[in-house]
Amino acid sequence: MRLLAEGLSARRGEDLIFHDISFVLAAGEALVVTGPNGSGKSTLLRVLAGLLGAESGRIHLEGGPPGFEHPHELSHYLGHRNAMKRELTVEENLSFWQRFLGDSPGGAGIALDAAAEAVGLAGITHLPFGYLSAGQQRRMAMAKLLVAYRPIWLLDEPTAALDAGADRLFAGLVATHLDRGGIVIAATHQPLGIERTKALQMTGFVH
Amino acid sequence: MIALFFRDLKLSVRAGGGAMIGVLFFMTVVAVIPFGVGPDLNLLARIGPAILWIGALLAALLGLDRLFQAEREDGSLDLLLMQETPLLLTVFVKCAAHWAATGLPLVIASPFLGLFMNMDERAIGATMLTLLGGTPAITLIGAVGAAVAVALPRGGLLVSILVLPLAIPVLIFGVSATYAAVEDPAPFLPPFMILMAITLFFAVIGPVAAAAALRHSAD
């Protein structure tokens, strides 16, 4: 499976925020997007997630499972917000996303307990999500990536609010996902510590 | 999809959920009418069905603005939009859960409030039946307004104003069907059938329009 982006450009309001970005990612490869604030990292990820229309260019999958027209149907998206309900317990949140998202062809999500353990927070899944600290909430949002299988992960500043230990833990999760033939696109300032990464430096336009 | 239905139900009864707010508002509106109108029992019985319908309409509009806004604020809306599942199905299920949490309690509360208005059992039964058929239409119409105003921080009143013109036919046919059941010469079925037709019509149009509005609200 290969993810191809050809000549992508996107607009925010009147301004073109990036222009003519192309890349190819094969299974097991990661793309790390870096750049100063406002250079279009989040916009690029939202375009890839199908949440923003691209001004030009296209994104498509080669050799993906049949029946999926858009790569975003095979993607996890972890944005700035965690997409978890504060009023529900962690377990209710994760189990909802597990059942609602379902598994993409080619893999299976892991059990809730195992996912909580993988992010180092086993034993607190009975607490309401709102009770957790910002870092714990972020870790639980990562557990969401594990409970339902998606071959492509789109991660926007995934390690914001995390301590150094969680950084390493997160790098481990990404490495495992890549080993299983997944694709990761992350906008991050932290080095992932993985060899098979490509880099994309966003510069932004100078006005 | 069943998971989404039950999650929304759970959320509406937890702290901060809107399930009870609508019923309490409904109760407040209907309970103050006899004090305002005065103790004329015949008059109360005559205006009762209309007052119950107006109260239910306003109460049903009350919590609608949060339908998609809450999802947007915590980022869940992005994930709902990305899935392979058709968005209009997701919207429809959310409307169904919203109706079960806020519309159905209004229907259940209406007989008790009917007693406040000195309505006889025939009028109470007819009001309950028309509310059962009509309140889903209000939720489905409101979903369109909620989707259009999803990005506005204080969209509550705007949603009500946007959807009110579309909700007026529901009110007209709901009330006229109720009166037809009470007053003999007028037939009950024609207005009731039109009410049901409105509900079915918006069950199709509502999710399609709301899904289109949500797709274009993405920023």
Automatic annotation (TrEMBL), chain A:
<keyword id="KW-0201">Cytochrome c-type biogenesis</keyword>
<keyword id="KW-0067">ATP-binding</keyword>
<comment type="similarity">
    <text>Belongs to the ABC transporter superfamily.</text>
</comment>
<dbReference type="GO" id="GO:0016887">
    <property type="term" value="F:ATP hydrolysis activity"/>
</dbReference>
<keyword id="KW-0472">Membrane</keyword>
<dbReference type="GO" id="GO:0005524">
    <property type="term" value="F:ATP binding"/>
</dbReference>
<feature type="domain" description="ABC transporter">
    <location>
        <begin position="3"/>
        <end position="206"/>
    </location>
</feature>
<dbReference type="InterPro" id="IPR027417">
    <property type="entry name" value="P-loop_NTPase"/>
</dbReference>
<keyword id="KW-1278">Translocase</keyword>
<keyword id="KW-0547">Nucleotide-binding</keyword>
<keyword id="KW-0813">Transport</keyword>
<dbReference type="InterPro" id="IPR017871">
    <property type="entry name" value="ABC_transporter-like_CS"/>
</dbReference>
<dbReference type="InterPro" id="IPR005895">
    <property type="entry name" value="ABC_transptr_haem_export_CcmA"/>
</dbReference>
<dbReference type="GO" id="GO:0022857">
    <property type="term" value="F:transmembrane transporter activity"/>
</dbReference>
<dbReference type="InterPro" id="IPR003439">
    <property type="entry name" value="ABC_transporter-like_ATP-bd"/>
</dbReference>
<protein>
    <submittedName>
        <fullName>Cytochrome C biogenesis protein</fullName>
    </submittedName>
</protein>
<dbReference type="GO" id="GO:0017004">
    <property type="term" value="P:cytochrome complex assembly"/>
</dbReference>
<dbReference type="Pfam" id="PF00005">
    <property type="entry name" value="ABC_tran"/>
</dbReference>
<dbReference type="InterPro" id="IPR003593">
    <property type="entry name" value="AAA+_ATPase"/>
</dbReference>
From TrEMBL, chain B:
<dbReference type="GO" id="GO:0017004">
    <property type="term" value="P:cytochrome complex assembly"/>
</dbReference>
<dbReference type="GO" id="GO:0005886">
    <property type="term" value="C:plasma membrane"/>
</dbReference>
<dbReference type="InterPro" id="IPR026031">
    <property type="entry name" value="Cyt_c_CcmB_bac"/>
</dbReference>
<keyword id="KW-0201">Cytochrome c-type biogenesis</keyword>
<feature type="transmembrane region" description="Helical">
    <location>
        <begin position="85"/>
        <end position="108"/>
    </location>
</feature>
<dbReference type="GO" id="GO:1903607">
    <property type="term" value="P:cytochrome c biosynthetic process"/>
</dbReference>
<keyword id="KW-0812">Transmembrane</keyword>
<feature type="transmembrane region" description="Helical">
    <location>
        <begin position="12"/>
        <end position="37"/>
    </location>
</feature>
<feature type="transmembrane region" description="Helical">
    <location>
        <begin position="188"/>
        <end position="214"/>
    </location>
</feature>
<keyword id="KW-1133">Transmembrane helix</keyword>
<keyword id="KW-0472">Membrane</keyword>
<feature type="transmembrane region" description="Helical">
    <location>
        <begin position="157"/>
        <end position="182"/>
    </location>
</feature>
<protein>
    <recommendedName>
        <fullName>Heme exporter protein B</fullName>
    </recommendedName>
</protein>
<dbReference type="GO" id="GO:0015232">
    <property type="term" value="F:heme transmembrane transporter activity"/>
</dbReference>
<keyword id="KW-1003">Cell membrane</keyword>
<feature type="transmembrane region" description="Helical">
    <location>
        <begin position="128"/>
        <end position="150"/>
    </location>
</feature>
<comment type="similarity">
    <text>Belongs to the CcmB/CycW/HelB family.</text>
</comment>
<dbReference type="Pfam" id="PF03379">
    <property type="entry name" value="CcmB"/>
</dbReference>
<feature type="transmembrane region" description="Helical">
    <location>
        <begin position="43"/>
        <end position="64"/>
    </location>
</feature>
<comment type="function">
    <text>Required for the export of heme to the periplasm for the biogenesis of c-type cytochromes.</text>
</comment>
<keyword id="KW-0997">Cell inner membrane</keyword>
<keyword id="KW-0813">Transport</keyword>
